[in-house]
Write a structure and sequence with these properties.
Shape: globular
CATH topology of the largest domain: Aspartate Aminotransferase, domain 2
Bound molecules: pyridoxal-5'-phosphate
Number of strands: 13
Mean pLDDT: 96
Distance between the termini: 67 Å
Helix content: 25-40%
Number of domains: 2
CATH architecture of the largest domain: 3-Layer(aba) Sandwich
Strand order of the largest sheet: 2-8-7-6-5-3-4
Structural class: alpha/beta
CATH superfamily of the largest domain: Type I PLP-dependent aspartate aminotransferase-like (Major domain)
């Protein structure tokens, strides 16, 4: 008997490596610090929690498909037109909508090497071809991105600050990148970590006000501590928003998420507290890592809520061994071997105690490993 043919995935889906999330648990010991997914260690604002509780009894009703109140709150908060905002199931959905609305088989989508892992998946999912521009010392190289653009490029994805590197390019560099793109190429500026950047910074909202080919992408998962509620948004010219609405899931942000996001935006004190804590402990952790420079560790300068630790390829200790040592101490960080960065560990900023525990674990590991 001949075997019946089985359903086959498309060749482009076959090319996708499924997203590998950060670890949330250890098999054999309690977790001391969960620093693998750039989450807010304090949780959401208490006002966001209360807002979610207040709508739980409406759970039998579909959420507002247009997220009207949330878009109005975002419009007021950022001084922008709510009609130009689209909300998504996390900003991940917004990234997929951009790829799906503007690219397909035969088209190219450019992103930076060592960029956010979802860009490759979103590109391949729609049958488009990912084109990877080399970076320079973990930083986006604008000339390399522009050199990767061809007449088939439909979208350029850029995370700024970038994940997993934490690096930032200046407002002037972002604008130079945009100015070098053809007007029919979408520039998707993913500002998931916008609130942690300092100095002259372009979050994409200004660019999207001025140009018809820019989407500013934002999330409530990082600063606002609402990762479980899956709330992201995009801001762009009406024609781009219209295209994205055609393919989004109709009820893509739950009622709890919409209510939580509105309350979180209003709690500016909670957001400021998280931001100040993050910047302070990011600098502290970077200094601690720099002090381990003799063992080949380096803190890549970060503008986000995490620090990328690079281990010298020929140094006395490896990132893989350091990650094992962290896990033995109950600390979950992200070893980036799956992203072709085997010499790097990304450590999210936790509470003071968590961040201190991570640094102490690394210090003790280095001391053990380098003791003669
Ligand atoms: C975390 C992250 C996102 C996605 O966040 P959502 O939870 O889907 O909103 C998007 N882009 C970058 C660069 C991120 O690090």
């Amino acid at each position: 008997m001949t075997a019946q043919p089985l359903p086959r995935m498309t060749p482009w889906v076959e090319g996708i490596h499924a997203y590998v999330p950060g670890k949330a648990k250890l098999a054999d010991r309690p977790v001391v610090a969960r620093l693998a997914s750039n989450e807010n260690p304090f949780g959401p604002s208490p006002r966001a929690i209360a807002a979610m509780q207040s709508v739980l009894a409406d759970s039998h009703r579909y959420p507002d498909p247009a997220a009207t109140a949330l878009r109005e709150a975002l419009g007021a908060h950022h001084g922008i037109d709510p009609a130009r905002i689209i909300c998504g199931t996390g900003s991940d959905e917004i990234l997929h909508l951009i790829a799906g609305a503007f690219a397909g088989p035969g088209d190219e989508i450019v992103h930076v090497r060592h960029g956010f892992a979802v860009y490759d998946i979103a590109t391949r999912r729609v049958g488009a071809t990912p084109v990877v521009a080399p970076d320079a010392d973990w930083i986006c190289d604008v000339d390399a991105v522009l050199a990767a653009v061809t007449d088939r490029t439909r979208v350029v994805f850029l995370a700024n600050p970038n994940n997993p590197t934490g690096t930032l390019i200046s407002a002037a560099e972002v604008r130079r990148l945009h100015a070098g793109l053809p007007s029919d190429c979408v520039f998707a500026l993913d500002a998931a970590y916008a609130e942690f950047a300092e100095g002259l910074y372009e979050d994409g909202i200004g660019l999207a006000n001025e140009h018809a080919n820019v989407v500013a992408v934002r999330t409530f998962s990082k600063l606002y501590g609402l990762a479980a509620q899956r709330i992201g948004w995009g801001y762009a010219a009406p024609a781009l928003i219209d295209a994205m609405h055609r393919i989004r899931a109709p009820f893509n942000v739950p009622t709890t998420g919409q209510a939580a996001a509105i309350a979180a935006l209003a709690d500016t004190e909670w957001a400021a507290m998280t931001r100040e804590h993050t910047l302070r402990w990011r600098n502290w952790l970077s200094t601690e890592i720099t002090a381990l420079g003799n063992a080949g560790l380096r803190a890549v300068p970060s503008a986000a809520n995490f620090v990328l630790v690079e281990f010298a390829a020929d140094g006395p200790v490896t990132a893989a061994a350091a990650n094992e040592a962290l896990m033995a101490d109950g600390i979950l960080a992200r070893h980036l071997a799956v992203q072709n960065m085997p010499n790097c560990i990304r450590i999210s900023i936790g509470t003071e105690a968590e961040t201190r525990a991570a640094a102490a674990s690394l210090r003790a590991f280095v001391a053990r490993a380098t003791a003669a």
